[in-house]
Each structure stands twice: as C-alpha cells, then as structure tokens.
C-alpha cells in the first residue's frame, strides 16, 4: 500500500479514539460514574503517570522485539480489552485500576504511529509528514462532532460505547497491508544497546525535549477541564463538541500547509512561535471568560500544540538515527505527553477549585520558560 495512504488511515483511526478519550473522559467519569471532580482528576493524574511509564519502558522494549505493524495491532487489541473492563467498574478503586490498565497499553499507539512515520520519512517513503498527520486531526474532529450529537440526545453514558466502537475500528484497519519496511522485525544495533540515555549525547536533544515538555504540559488544564469549563461558562451542550473541535480544525489547517509554509523555519523559531501562541491562548481564556473568546482562543491550538509537535518531529527526522527513533518517541510521549501533564493536571485542578479561570492562567508557568529556552536554542542554531 502507498505509505502516505497507510499512514493517513492509521492516524485517522487512532485519533478518532483519542478525540473521545482525551477531552471527554474526565467528564464521563464525573457524569456517568458519579465521581467528584477531585476524584476524577486524581484518577486521571495517576493514569497519566502510568501513561508515562508505558512509552518510556514497555514501548521501547516491545519495539525491539516486534515489527511496527505487529506492535500497533497488539496494542489496539489490548486497548479494546481494557475498555471492556470499564463496563462493570463502578467504585473509585475499580475505576482507578482500569484507568491505570488502559494507560499502560493505549498510549503505546501514539509513539508507535509517529515512530512509523519517522521510519517511513527516513526511508524516503513518506515525504510529507504534515499531510498524513492532518488526517489524525480530521479523525479527532469527526469523533467530537458525532459524539456531540449522541451525548446531547442520550447523555454522557454513550462516551464509553463510542470509545469502544472507535477502538474496534482502529484494530480492524490495523490489519490492512502496510509498507513492507514496517513489517520487518527490528535488528539489534549498537545504538539500541546503549539505551535511551544515549539520546542525550545527540546535539541539543535535551534542550529541545525540555522545551516540548513545557509546551505540551501547558495543555493539562485544557485537556482535563476544558469540557467542564465550557459548562461552567454556560456553553450550550450541543455546541461544546464543536467548540472543542475548533482547536482541531486549526490543527488540521496547520498540518495541511506545514511542509510548504513552515519547512524553511528553524526548529528554534517554530518552538518560539508555539510558545508565544500558547501564552496568548491561556491569557485570553483567563481574561475574558465567555464562550465566544474561548472559541476564538481555540484557533491558537495550531501554535500551542500543532507547531510544537511539528517542530519536534522535524528535529527528530533530521537528527535522530532510525534505531533511536522509538526511544526518542517514547521519551517524548512519557515526559511531554504524560508525566508533565500529570503534574500540571493536579496543579490545574487545585487552581480550578479556587477559580476555574486560574487553572488556565496557571499554564503560563510552562509557556514563558518555554519561550525563553526556545529563543536561546534559536541562537544556538545560527
């Protein structure tokens, strides 16, 4: 199969499920399972800790044993099983156990997909990462738009069933014929034997990683409390999914033009612009607490998330050897997407209970350091 078509299909099917799990899961546990906001926040924070363990330990180990295609299929099947375990769970303890379980298997899919894209790009089989990745964002939008219709009619209980159905679709599409390079079992190499710490010997890797950790951590409040905050500022329930997906539409727009319009920018410049956009986004939501301004601020997701992610992938493809790509992706997923978000989910939850707007303003403790470090890195590049 054409590498671009295969990669686009895989991104699309995974992000359909991510578009359900990421913005709606805290709200689902509050509304469908009867947890308090603080209980649900604690479960999601501990889940983020487990989510960080998976890509930094389980994923690199498995990536050295199995092909990319086999790993994606296995992680998808394990995720279906984990979701089914939510059905009988009703107590705080049982929901915590299941959430820890799903966060050990489900997050493997994210670095595995980006690693596959990196390998295809390095083998010159995928020449336009942004164009493939935009289909992931489209899947995210499709999930939110469809889910909004069903939650408005049947309530938040349907969120679980939507996630289950989406993951089954993901597994089915995962058995499509993949580019042959992704079906090859990995060969042990000297760089793999050195472990992930060897990555820190690569020029500027540590600095770039720290910057993207800050930038992705700054989304903790939005991902975990954005759905609840929109209810707080009295957004119509039938519009919440649409408002959330404005961010993803902006993301799609960015990825669709990224390789043409932003390829000439250095990684440091991209990270600096992402930091500025993120700072403006959270300050706007804090300063003007209404639905219209929140919706406008969603456009800045193209900078705060998409541009930061694109910059890291650009750095990875250019600087990281193919054998080290799974380790780099695992570290990025663990530290930037999981553990840092876990810390700032707790921080954001504390601020949210004082005043919901404070939870968004609090995220500039991530974006301002990221901006300063990005400007410093930009000087090192020249």
From TrEMBL:
Signal peptide: none annotated. Residues 5-361 form the Major facilitator superfamily associated domain. It is found in: Cell inner membrane. Keywords: Cell inner membrane, Cell membrane, Membrane, Transmembrane, Transmembrane helix, Transport. GO terms for molecular function: lactose binding; lactose:proton symporter activity. SUPFAM superfamilies: MFS general substrate transporter (SSF103473). GO terms for cellular component: plasma membrane. The keyword Transferase does not apply. Pfam families: MFS_1_like. InterPro entries: HcaT-like, MFS_assoc_dom, MFS_trans_sf. Its main location: membrane. It is a multi-pass membrane protein. The chain crosses the membrane at residues 12-30, 42-63, 70-89, 95-113, 134-152, 158-178, 199-218, 238-258, 265-285, 291-312, 332-352, 358-377. PANTHER family: 3-PHENYLPROPIONIC ACID TRANSPORTER-RELATED (PTHR23522:SF10), BLL5896 PROTEIN (PTHR23522). This is MFS transporter.
